[in-house]
Amino acid sequence: MYSIIIDTSIKTNMRHYFMKYKSILILCPSPNAKGGVADYYEMVEKYFNSDRMALQFYYTGKYDTNTTFLNRVYKSAKDLSNLFKVFRGKDLIVFNPSLDMRAILRDGVYHLIAKTIFDKKTIVFFHGWNHGLEGKIEKYAKCLFRSIFCFDKGLVLASQFKVTLERWGYDPGRISLNTTIFEHHEVDGTKDPFKIIFLSRFARGKGCLEAIKAVEIVARDFPQVKLYMAGDGELLEDMQGYVVAHNLSDNVEFTGWIEGNAKYTLLQQCGIMLFPTSYGEGMPICVIEGMGMGLPIVTRPVAGIPDVLIDGDNGFLVESREPIDFAAKVKYLIENKALWQFISLNNILKARENYEIRNVVKRLEEMYWEVAQ
User: Fold this and answer.
1) Would you give the end-to-end CA distance of the chain in angstroms?
2) 301 shares a domain with 224
3) 0.70 cut: is pTM over it?
């Protein structure tokens, strides 16, 4: 007869390991969706590697191929049903809304369920920011907002948004400034300052037409200048019409939506990023991607941009929305090659140290671990 001897130290270590190992649930858009939040978590999923926690992703929001009202209602109801199942057994749930009405209503319900029914630790990462809704919450619903989003950790992409949440009554120690990210690609010496890129959706407030008009002005002095409009969206036909009407076909090229290697190949060739945005967003990922590829950035000091870019060191922050003012900064970079080269190198170093995905996921792991305890 044989007896089985069980090493109790192994059992104790295994029990201790599984008690410490954390399960993290992240609610975010599908990788098939176009936009910065989807890109952010696609890269996080690709590079996150930990021996003390596992990430699980649940994709919320509209289906990319069907955006009808009935489909959105169906998707929200389906999400609600599924989340009652996936919330169980999680040590931490990470929400990723923008401060807009639809996202706040949807994630507000989900967050209430996570907190009141399942008593979960939560992080809420506000990616975008609608100043109109901010004003309404400020006036009528600060306490309600704080009751619904009673998170353990809040993340924002701009210091001004952090100040707002603190003004609404949140503990400053629970609010942190976070960043968007980029994936490192090698930069060679083929950049051309006469090649300019606009990289974003063609939406109102993004500065699409202002970028074209600015390059139209630059082309009067530098006819070889070329603007690559990389993206798509609701304003595409209007911009194409403007280019044809003003005989700018030699100076403006519409590439369509680009991603992956095609995007980085184009960024490699270009020498300046032009982004005259006034859009209500957090920290545009295109700015970080441009910095990482060594492009001086000509943009506006809105949302989280002034937290990242220093005027003169990383490009130029233009207060105005007038194309002539953006054109002046682009021409200044073209005419001052030493400055253009200095900013290019400066941006590469700054972006890789602070925003490269491999460094960011290490910081995310530490934050998730701390909040999940």
Assistant:
1) 46
2) yes
3) yes
